[in-house]
Design brief:
- The longest helix is centred in the N-terminal third of the chain and has 17 residues, at 2-18.
- By secondary structure, this protein is of the alpha+beta class.
- A hairpin with a 3-residue loop joins strand 3 (49-52) and strand 4 (56-60).
- The chain has helices at 2-18, 32-39, 65-73, 115-130, 142-150, 156-164, 169-179, 187-194, 211-225, 232-243, 248-259, 266-282, 328-334, 349-354, and strands at residues 22-23, 29-31, 49-52, 56-60, 80-89, 101-110, 136-141, 245-247, 290-292, 306-311, 322-326, 342-347.
């Protein structure tokens, strides 16, 4: 089976090469520090981490995007596209039936001056490759959610907290409820905040946080507790944005209606509209293309714009056959402040074979 998956992966990769992409290869064992810095400690629960006596903490490759961005940002920064294939490794504690080692084939575009056209090109290429499988496409836009949070009439600390948890829907919702006064304060937190010296009888300090860090966190919770609750209207607007799930043209119209009361959305919606127009020129059936405002919120946290996926309706038990999106901010973080537009995605050749393979 593994040899068949590799053959399928090479075939897909060859197709991207034929479209002008350069082949990219990277190590299987990567420095964990960069990945943990980018994704936070959350990825530790999903990745295989080990320690090398010379190189420190190392991680079995969870994906290819970070190393390919590092490679491109270390170069001349000129527009380029890359393709690759190889194994990636993810723990599957929540889905023990899924594979923890599997192959990915990827395609990444850097430096496209027209972001809408680049998004349309990448989505179109993936759509063309996977067309024989009759998959269902899903699209979204993390950029709209980022614009929503940035435009909220609330404190900077609350906006920052919500921004950190855009990719964690349950935590995001819990924060909105807390900031709006819709969730009761846990008794333990209430007692902690009411105490004049909360650490006086705390006992032996354990964990990674210092006493000063804990005190700073308590001060921040107290300051937030003194702020007025977010209005019901603001909560309704957040809910309205996150609930949008229609075809692209209808979703755009719905979101523009919401933007009457949330004008910070407008630049992101203009980008959404430009992308729809570029996709239509690329031959994508935009009139019937689904769009979900909440789509992509459980993907890798480096996506900050357009996101997409392809799914088998005949096999709902399978994970997405392909996923991808825009990650401009990641290039800035890995390029020491220099940012390059970037968009790409990956295909699972093992799932392609599960569905009968490509001709």
């Amino acid at each position: 089976m593994k040899s068949r998956v590799r053959i399928e992966a090479e075939s897909i990769c060859d197709g991207f090469v034929a479209e002008g992409a350069a082949r990219f290869e990277t190590d299987i064992l990567l420095q964990a520090e960069v990945l943990l810095d980018l994704y936070g400690e959350d990825i530790r629960a999903r990745a295989y981490v080990t320690t090398d006596p010379e190189r420190g903490e190392m991680m079995l490759r969870p994906d290819f995007t970070v190393p390919v961005v590092q490679y491109h940002m270390a170069g001349d920064g000129l527009p380029a596209s890359y393709t690759y294939f190889g194994e990636v490794f993810r723990k599957q504690e929540d889905h023990p039936d899924r594979r923890s080692e599997y192959m990915q084939v990827g395609y990444e575009e850097f430096g496209g001056a027209n972001a809408a056209a680049a998004d349309a090109d990448v989505f179109g290429q993936f759509s063309d490759v996977l067309a024989p499988l009759g998959l269902r496409a899903a699209t979204g836009d993390i950029g709209i959610l980022i614009a929503m949070v940035r435009g909220l009439a609330t404190t900077e600390d609350r906006r920052a907290a919500l921004m950190r948890h855009i990719w964690r829907p349950a935590r995001f919702t819990a924060l909105v409820k807390r900031f709006a006064g819709l969730a009761p304060v846990p008794p333990s937190r209430a007692a902690l905040l009411a105490s004049e010296a909360p650490l006086q009888d705390a006992g032996v300090m354990i964990g990674l946080r210092s006493e000063r860090e804990i005190e700073t966190r308590i001060d921040a919770l107290r300051a937030d507790g003194a702020e007025p609750a977010m209005s019901a209207e603001m909560v309704d607007l957040i809910t309205a944005v996150l609930s949008v799930s229609e075809t692209c043209p209808n979703a755009l119209e719905h979101l523009r209606d919401i933007a009457v009361d949330m004008p910070g959305l407008l630049p992101a919606l203009d980008r959404f509209e430009a992308r729809c127009e570029a996709m239509a020129r690329r031959g994508v059936d935009v009139e019937n293309l689904p769009f979900e405002a909440s789509y992509g919120r459980t993907s890798m946290e480096y996506y900050d714009g357009f996101v997409f996926g392809f799914y088998s309706e005949a096999r709902p038990d399978l994970p997405p056959v392909a996923t991808g999106g825009r990650y401009d901010a990641l290039t800035r973080r890995l390029g020491q402040g220099r940012e390059i537009p970037a968009v790409g995605g990956v295909i699972r050749p093992d799932l392609v074979l599960d569905l009968g393979g490509l001709p």
